[in-house]
Amino acid sequence: MPPPAQRVCWRWLAAGRASRRLVLVVVFVALLLDNIELTVVVPIVPTFLYVTEYEGANRSLVPAWTEPAPPALKPFPFSSVFSYFDNTTATVSVSGSTSTAELVNGTESSHPEQPLISSPPPPSGCLEGEEFLAKENVRVGLLFASKALVQLVVNPSVGLLTNRIGYNIPMFIGFSIMFLSTIMFAFSGTYTLLFIARALQGIGSSFSSVAGLGMLASVYTDDFERGNAMGIALGGLALGVLIGAPFGSVMYEFVGKSSPFLVLAFLALLDGALQLCILQPSKISPESTRGTPVFTLLRDPYILVAAGALCFSNMGVAMLEPTLPIWMMQTMCSPKWQLGMAFLPASISYLIGTNLFGILANKMGRWLCSLIGMAVVGISLLCVPLAQSIYGLIGPNGGLGFAIGMVDSSMMPIMGYLVDLRHTSVYGNVYAIADVAFCMGFAIGPSTGGAIVRAIGFPWLMVIIGVINMAYAPLCWYLRNPPAKEEKIAILSQECPMQTQSYTTQKTLRDFPLTDDSDVEAGSAE
């Protein structure tokens, strides 16, 4: 490369490393790929385990009347026989030397070892093995929950690591682990290997999400800009959820199990190249100030309310992931490609909700958006069991995705704002807590959802989680007016979207850092 071209490239890289927008692009792509891999397995795993482990899979997937017969003996495998005793027609298997004419004339010379009456085909093309499918709810739920359980354990350590070495290296570690787990998914053929690959994905996701969200909060210091940036980043999450399930179901149906994971592995390599150029993952850049410890943040009731909203709103869709495809297989007799398409309305509406309310929530109040969103989540979940076909799922799943988008795009900026308001403005630990809240929803949801479905049925599962969301929604009101510590009020922006109150542990307020005039200005800014 000529020297002038090299100088242009270096100048472009230097400008890119100083650009907040390119940092946002890197985080967007990381969350996109992570959530494609999160949801691409949703339609694949239930049918893959059914085909590979259920002893009657081949018999139930291929209708009995299409089984080939010995060509030299008879052209048709079955024949209808009229019974003179009950005037009904019975379907019998014709094999060996038996012919249709012999059966109609009442003479039969079939071999005794050949069964005469064939087992009836599954009604409407549904899969056989009700007991196997019921047990599979639990196994699939545990497999899906393994990612979140591992992520739940790893997140606090990643938060501490980002405070010590910065966000760049953990982001690249997350990419590397995600690439490894994707390759393992592509070539795993047993439940155990799939379980290990899913757990490994949880480690990579922990590094990517905690470091990515913390990086955004550190480069977008203004609360309004931070809310917009978080909305765009969560749009990557939404787009990943949008693409994952339909992409996985279509590729699995028409190409094969490994194909969607190999495509994801290639895209992950591109993401790694982008991180190498923009983030310089070999550079250690610790935070200049020491962040608030995780346990101190966990004792903050306002952070706990925000984390609970993230947990319970996402727990609804987490319970749907392992149970809805199997419920569709049992009640709607859906083909494989429909199992992923059922999540398409939720994904599209989530993408719209996160981008729309990333801006609107700042104007109407993030606490109010979260409260309304959780109520709509509960109503949508109650409507899911009423669907009689895949088209009946469009409305409930669409409302569910839109409402979760309202909650996520409101609560993620609130987490950063609460740290600014009440603690030290270092964001690794608080977004580790936010990711823990996500993980608890996606760990408790699938693992308990399968067991509840087996015990009392899918409709009652939706009733339980729907009522929980509607009961939790009023708690978001407490985020309307969170109190601020004295020493933090002086450095807060007057454009903050939530009202604040001050409190102190001292007996007097004589050393309060603001004057009466500044209180009036704060009130007018609100």
Automatic annotation (TrEMBL):
Query: Which family does the record assign?
Result: Belongs to the major facilitator superfamily. Vesicular transporter family.
Q: Which organism is it from?
A: Heliornis fulica
Question: Mind listing the GO biological process terms from this record?
Answer: aminergic neurotransmitter loading into synaptic vesicle
Topological type in the membrane? Multi-pass membrane protein
Q: Which InterPro entries match?
A: MFS (IPR011701), MFS_dom (IPR020846), MFS_trans_sf (IPR036259), MFS_Vesicular_Transporter (IPR050930), Tet-R_TetA/multi-R_MdtG-like (IPR001958)
Q: Does the keyword Transmembrane apply?
A: yes
Q: Which residues cross the membrane?
A: 21-45, 173-197, 203-220, 232-255, 261-281, 302-320, 340-360, 367-394, 400-419, 426-445, 457-479
Know the name of this protein?
Answer: VMAT1 protein
Q: Which reaction does it catalyse?
A: dopamine(in) + 2 H(+)(out) = dopamine(out) + 2 H(+)(in); serotonin(in) + 2 H(+)(out) = serotonin(out) + 2 H(+)(in)
Could you tell me which residue ranges the Major facilitator superfamily (MFS) profile domain spans? 23-484
Q: Per the record, what is one GO cellular component? A: synaptic vesicle membrane
**Per UniProt, which keywords does this protein have?**
Cytoplasmic vesicle, Glycoprotein, Membrane, Neurotransmitter transport, Synapse, Transmembrane, Transmembrane helix, Transport
Q: Which GO terms describe its molecular function?
A: serotonin:sodium:chloride symporter activity; xenobiotic transmembrane transporter activity
Its annotated compartments are:
Cytoplasmic vesicle, Secretory vesicle, Synaptic vesicle membrane
- Entry superkingdom: Eukaryota
Give the Pfam families listed for this entry: MFS_1 (PF07690)
Q: Does the keyword Transcription apply?
A: no
